[in-house]
Structures are given as structure tokens and as C-alpha cells.
Amino acid sequence: MNIKSLMVGPIGTNCYLLCDEDARACAVVDPGGDAGRVAAAVAETGCAPCAILLTHGHYDHTGGVADLQARWPEVPVYLNRRDVYEDAYTQQLFPPLSGDVRDYDEGDTVAVGGLTVSVLATPGHSEGSVTLRCGDVLFCGDTLFAGSCGRTDFPGGSMEKMMASLRRLGQLEGDLQVLPGHMEPSTLDRERRTNPYLIQAMR
Length: 203
Known about the structure:
It is a single chain. The chain is built from seven helices and 14 strands. With 203 residues, it is of the alpha/beta class. A six-stranded mixed beta sheet has the order 1-2-3-4-5-6, covered by helices on one side. It has a six-stranded mixed beta sheet with strand order 7-8-9-10-13-14. This is MBL fold metallo-hydrolase. Residues 12-182 form the Metallo-beta-lactamase domain.
């Protein structure tokens, strides 16, 4: 397993390339913009894209999806259905996606070559926020940040649900890698010790 990160889009979203180099397969996590750069980075890995995985539906995490779909029409996109909205106002934050968009939710898995990505429902930042686990790595989206957590004042947000989601992540066994949607990476042990939101959630 090899993971490459790029900062993309208008507000510096972390986009990750999750690669099984043996199978030469790659998933793109949260392509929030700069689709050309993302596609070029995928090409550099020598792996073929097999999935676009979204931790939630906000524009800064989905902004590059349409252009990547145009380049890779056979590659499915995964997004939790709770982050799909019909009203025009909410769609400004959750822009609609088209093409092969598949729902995934708690307990689902996605294969990336020989790797297995497991879906953990972690609402709070949005109703459909998920954390994606592959081995000892957590792609946390905007749920858990280094020293902080995601905002809960957007449509579908809930501080109560955020605290429950943080508690769930904090109770996972082991010192897992934390790869957030913004800012620097961390580890779960570090966040258990120093993150005031996670500490509060685990009381």
C-alpha cells in the first residue's frame, strides 16, 4: 500500500491517492479540485484508477469529480446518499454529481486492487460524512483534524453527532494514521492525548 497526498481546490483540501502497487490499482479520495494535477499524479504512480471515494459531499471535496469522470468514464464514484440534496440552496454546498455515483454506508467495503477500504459512518460535519479505513490508515475527511474537528454549523451538521463520531474513532484500537481533509496528518494516539474535542468526546 502506498499513499500520496496533494493539496487541491480553492481552500486547500487534502486529496489522497491510495495505491496497491502490486495490483497497479489506485483510488482517489476527495478530489476537491485541480483534476488535471490529480490525473497527472495518478499517472505518475503507474496505477490505474478504479474508484473515486468521497468522505462527504461538500464542494471542496468533490470539485474535481466531474473532470475526472470525463477522463475516466468507467471509474465509479462513491458518496453516502445522505449528502445528496435536491434543493438549489443546499446544492451550493453539496453540488450534485452525475454519472456512475454509488451509495456507500456503514459496514460497506470497496476493493482497491488487493486492498480493502471499509466505510465507517461518522456524521457530524455533514449527515453523510464517512471515515474510510484501509489497514492502519483512517481517511477522516472533515471529521477529525490534527488538534481539532470539522465544523458543525453547515446544513446536516450536528455537534452531538460529531461528538459521537469522534468518540467512535477514539475508541478504535491501535495507533492508527489520521489523514484528515485539511491541514497536516496525525496519529490517533496523538489526538487522544492532545485534541480537546476528542478528549471531551471520550469522557
